[in-house]
Amino acid sequence: MVLSDLPDEAFFSIFSFLDPQQTCRCTSMSRAVKRLAEADGLWQEFCFRRWSGKHKNPLRDEVHSKEYWPKQKALGKTAKECFTTAEVEGRRTVITRHDLLNNEWNFTWSHEQDKPIRIVFREDPCTTVLLGRTCTWSITPENHVKIDEYPTLSVSRTKAWGWTLSNAYVDICAVDPVTGMRSLSSLGKRTLSPAIAYAWYAYVFHALSDEHADERSRTERIQRFRERVELLQMREQQPVRNVENEPDFVVLE
Q1: What residues does 165 pair with on adjacent strands?
Q2: Distances (CA, A) of 162 to 36, 51, 99, 179
Q3: What angle do CA 231, 233, 234 make, to 5 degrees?
């Protein structure tokens, strides 16, 4: 039995323990593994995990999820490309007019606990209503936002990929219209070290290569090994890592 003879389900079981970076490393194993490691279903799962809690998450519920993937497929984009594009976009620190115009913003004084004031930036003309008066706004060449004669606002990104404009006196934060976001992950949020993952792969390969074992026996052996892996993870006191809390990274081809 060769590697390409393994059923897709076996590989997907293995990949369910890996994070996106580890999965990308597996693409160099063979053409068959590369095809499975880049499968849309697998990367849609990674998107569910990674985007949960992010600003304007397009997969915030089942309705939006069902609409999103067909649109991307019609545009010729794979789920892996969507994941990579989102990672790059989430790390972008240069703000654009589009970012200002397509968000609502909460204005607060930096050292007070007053209720936020909702403001919006308008395009034609470039104005916003701030503290009861109409002000003009602009983006400076230094990537700062200027509102009338008020002190310049520095631009930063939040961990949830939102935007914050701030100076010593005020904070203006992009409002996320998505509330109650949750992960739609069906595989769970578990990852293993590459060493354990490779051991898992080797065992699955051995179990499925046994010509004398029936399908039920193979399934039971794989399930027993899955339980042993999870027990080993607990004994080694390796906490289950949440993909949403992983450091930012970009998937490279």
Answers
A1: 155, 172
A2: 33, 12, 10, 14
A3: 65
Residue 174, token pair as written in the block: 């992009």
Strand order in the sheet with 133-139: 127-130, 133-139, 145-147
Distance of alpha carbon 142 from alpha carbon 95, whole angstroms: 10
pTM above 0.70, yes or no: no
Read off the pLDDT of residues 212-237 as tens digits, 9 standing for 90 and up: 667 677 667 667 766 766 666 565 54
Nearest to 161 by CA among 27, 58, 33, 67: 58
SS3 annotation, 53-100 = CCCCCCCCCHHHHHHHHHHHHHCCCCHHHHHHHHHHHHHCCCCCHHHH
Both tokens assigned to 65: 């999820």
Rounded to a whole number, what is the distance in angstroms from the first to the last CA of the chain?
30
Euclidean distance between CA atoms 142 and 153, whole angstroms: 11
49 and 70 in contact (C-beta within 8 Å)?
Answer: no
